[in-house]
Amino acid sequence: MSKLLYISIVALILLGGVSYFGYWALNQNKLALDAYDVSYNQLGTSLTAYTQLILERATDKDTLGAATASEVSFTFPTEGDELYIGCDYQVAWETATTTSTSSVAVKSLDIALIDAETREVIGPIASGLSATSTDTESTYLDWKVGKVWPGKYHILISKINEQKTSTESAEFTVRQVPEGENKKDVCL
């Protein structure tokens, strides 16, 4: 009788362990799929926003050459600047009206990172550069360079204060932080 009791207890412990592991594995699977669903939704939103940006640029060729209410010129990054992945920078610009040299307040801005060779728009998740910046009455935008491929890039401003424009920064280079270098020393 005691052997049957020991066998029953061991069987119940094994059955409980298998049940607990099954519950844990199903929960891990659910968590992984939920995270994948969130990133897939972010990708869909990003693709929709940038597809709209590209279509606006392709269909409004007549407005691209027209003078806008404000002219923008980038003060950073400049030609030949080397930026490093994961570092924080301030994308800076100057604005002036076409009739005077007084500064124009920038309240909303549509901005994107463009690959210099392929001319493709890099999404906001990869580039770290927000697609739309609102309520930014300033002359700069804080930017942490995202996980992009090292290479040459431009920054494109497609709208300022809800007016279409097409202003690109000078070509700059994005590089990885060199191995053995302290990120704080490189990101000055």
Please give the structural blueprint:
Blueprint: H1 2-59, H2 61-64, E1 70-76, E2 82-84, E3 88-97, E4 108-115, E5 121-122, H3 124-127, E6 132-134, E7 140-144, E8 151-160, E9 163-168, E10 172-175, H4 183-186
Parallel strand pairs: 2-10
Antiparallel strand pairs: 1-3, 3-7, 4-5, 4-6, 4-8, 8-9, 8-10
Please explain how this structure is put together.
This protein has helices spanning 2-59, 61-64, 124-127, 183-186; strands at residues 70-76, 82-84, 88-97, 108-115, 121-122, 132-134, 140-144, 151-160, 163-168, 172-175. The chain is α+β, with helices and mostly antiparallel strands. It folds into two domains: 1-59; 66-186, Immunoglobulins (Immunoglobulin-like). The strands form two sheets. Strands 2, 4, 5, 6, 8, 9 and 10 form a seven-stranded mixed beta sheet that branches. The termini are far apart.
Strand percent estimate? 25-35%
Flag low-confidence runs.
61-69, 98-102
Number of helices: 4
Distance between the termini: 78 Å
Quickly give the structural class.
alpha+beta
| Average residue pLDDT | 74
Enter the CATH topology name of the largest domain. Answer: Immunoglobulin-like
Radius of gyration: 26 Å
User: Could you say how many structural domains there are in total?
Assistant: 2
What gross morphology would you assign? elongated
**What is the β-strand count?**
10
What percentage of residues falls in helices of 4 or more residues? 25-40%
Give the biggest beta sheet: 7 strands, mixed
**CATH architectural designation of the largest domain:** Sandwich
